[in-house]
Design brief:
The complex is a heterodimer of chains A (116) and B (108). Chain A is mainly β and 116 residues long. Chain A contains no helices and eleven strands. Chain A has strands at residues 3-7, 10-12, 18-25, 33-39, 45-51, 57-59, 67-72, 77-82, 91-99, 102-106, 110-114. In chain A, the strands form two sheets. In chain A, strands 2, 4, 5, 6, 9, 10 and 11 form a seven-stranded mixed sheet that branches. In chain A, strands 1-3-8-7 form a four-stranded antiparallel sheet, with no helix packed on it. Chain A is globular, with a radius of gyration of 13 Å. Helix content of chain B is 0%, strand content 53%. Chain B is globular, with a radius of gyration of 13 Å. In chain B, strands 2, 4, 5, 6, 9, 10 and 11 form a seven-stranded mixed sheet that branches. A four-stranded antiparallel sheet of chain B has the order 1-3-8-7, with no helix packed on it. By secondary structure, chain B is an all-beta fold. The chains are: A mainly beta (116), B mainly beta (108). At the A-B interface, strand 5, strand 9 and strand 10 of A face strand 4, strand 5, strand 9 and strand 10 of B.
């Protein structure tokens, strides 16, 4: 059974930094594209970033230059370094396993609140 | 950038009724990379349909997906109480992912 467990969320002031982590189990982590998807309170889903098995990365325009996705295949772990945080980055951040364009498995999410 | 527009915004139906949800893309997309998700309050999204018409693991056969080009449909043949939720469409292309704004299926 695929399991994804996010951690690292919390409250942070605008301009601050936060690092999210996602631990994966139940599948061969190094073979899969992994992604971050967020959901602002009461809003819809927004794709944030992805990292392929070859470590190539992609980002939504809203976070490019501020967020960095990385993976550690030896630890079955995905990370999202978030810098220069803004109020509109406030959201639940989900880690997800992407298979051929769709997100087959999701974590339970971790809440990031950016507020002064 | 692909934009996905879902309609209607809210669908008010009774258990046992048929639900038809629409998702229209701003340009033609690959059906291979088109999906639908279900999300209930306080829960993570759950994959329902991938490849436009393939049911994900554990999804009952009352759920079906269809469509091609720029128009896609999710049909729930007979609504069960557990089907009332928000549904999102999603497409992948050019290393980017886009979600629709969601359709809420509520109990009438």
């Amino acid at each position: 059974e695929v399991q994804l467990l996010e951690s690292g969320g919390g409250s942070i002031q605008p301009g601050g930094s936060l690092r999210l982590s996602c631990g994966a189990s139940g599948f061969t982590f190094r073979l899969y594209t992994m992604a971050w998807v967020r959901q602002a309170p009461g809003k819809g889903l927004e794709w944030v970033s992805a990292i392929l098995s070859d470590d190539s990365t992609s980002y939504a325009d809203s976070v490019r230059g501020r967020f960095t996705v990385s993976r550690d295949n030896s630890k079955n772990s995905l990370s999202l370094q978030m810098n220069s945080l803004r109020a509109d980055d406030t959201a639940v951040y989900y880690c997800a396993q992407r298979v051929e364009g769709s997100f087959r498995s999701w974590g339970q999410g971790t809440l990031v609140t950016v507020s002064s | 950038e692909i934009v996905l527009t879902q309609s209607p915004g809210t669908l008010s139906l009774s258990p046992g009724e048929r639900a038809t949800l629409s998702c229209r893309a701003s340009q033609s997309v690959s059906a291979n990379y088109f999906a639908w998700y279900q999300q209930k309050p306080g829960q993570a999204p759950r994959l329902v349909i991938y490849g436009a018409s393939s049911r994900a693991t554990g999804i009952p056969d009352r759920f079906s997906g269809s469509g091609s080009g720029a128009d896609f449909t999710l049909t729930i043949s007979r609504l069960e109480p557990e089907d009332f939720a928000v549904y999102y469409c999603q497409v992948y292309g050019n290393s980017r992912v886009t979600f629709g704004q969601g359709t809420r299926v509520e109990i009438k």
